């Protein structure tokens, strides 16, 4: 058990470092960058959902603080961690009970691919939706709405 905690602790720090200092600086098409830290959420076995949420929030807020994104990643990764158990049940057709450890080792390769595809896609969609709802965008939308209403009158 201690070896497992050490392994996932090391993975946590390595993925946060890689995300903020390597992958966070890669901008494809001006705005798209790979988000490798999500792999931690997908790979870590779950013993207790409350601990998973705390751990995932810590992961997300660490990335947000180091990249200056204001909580976008924390919100998106907590969301996918919350529905992770449901997605595993959907893709595997295996019933995991509350007392069982949820692990990706129990999934076949096609199920694992589908599991990764669903959760990574959902996390990316949430990140870009939350990014579009920043405060300055709201002010810009309000300004456009007022200008449009003024011109219409």
Descriptive report:
By secondary structure, the chain is mainly alpha-helical. The chain is 71% helix and 0% strand. Helix 1 packs parallel to helix 3, helix 3 packs across helix 4 and helix 4 runs antiparallel to helix 5 (109-132).
List the total number of helices: 6
Helix content: over 70%
What overall geometry do the principal axes of the alpha carbons give?
A: globular
Distance between the termini: 69 Å
Q: For the report, how would you describe the main beta sheet?
A: none
Low-pLDDT parts are none
Summing up helix and strand content along with how strands pair, one would put the structural category as mainly alpha
List keywords for this structure.
153 residues; mainly alpha
Itemize the secondary structure elements and their pairings:
Elements: H1 2-21, H2 38-43, H3 49-67, H4 72-92, H5 109-132, H6 135-152
Helix pairs in contact: 1-3, 3-4, 4-5
Short description:
The protein is an all-alpha fold and 153 residues long. It has helices spanning 2-21, 38-43, 49-67, 72-92, 109-132, 135-152.
């Amino acid at each position: 058990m201690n070896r497992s905690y050490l392994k996932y602790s090391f993975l946590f720090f390595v993925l946060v470092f890689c995300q903020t200092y390597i992958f966070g600086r890669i901008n494809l098409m001006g705005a798209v960058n790979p988000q490798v830290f999500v792999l931690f959420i997908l790979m870590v076995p779950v013993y207790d959902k409350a601990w998973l949420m705390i751990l995932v929030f810590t992961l997300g807020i660490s990335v947000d603080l180091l990249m200056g994104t204001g909580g976008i990643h924390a919100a998106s990764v907590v969301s996918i961690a919350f529905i992770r158990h449901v997605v595993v049940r959907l893709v595997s057709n295996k019933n995991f009970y509350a007392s069982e450890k949820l692990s990706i080792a129990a999934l076949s390769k096609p199920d694992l691919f589908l599991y990764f595809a669903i959760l990574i896609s959902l996390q990316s969609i949430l990140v870009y939706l939350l990014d579009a709802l920043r405060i300055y965008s709201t002010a810009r939308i309000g300004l456009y709405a007022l200008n449009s209403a003024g011109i219409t009158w």
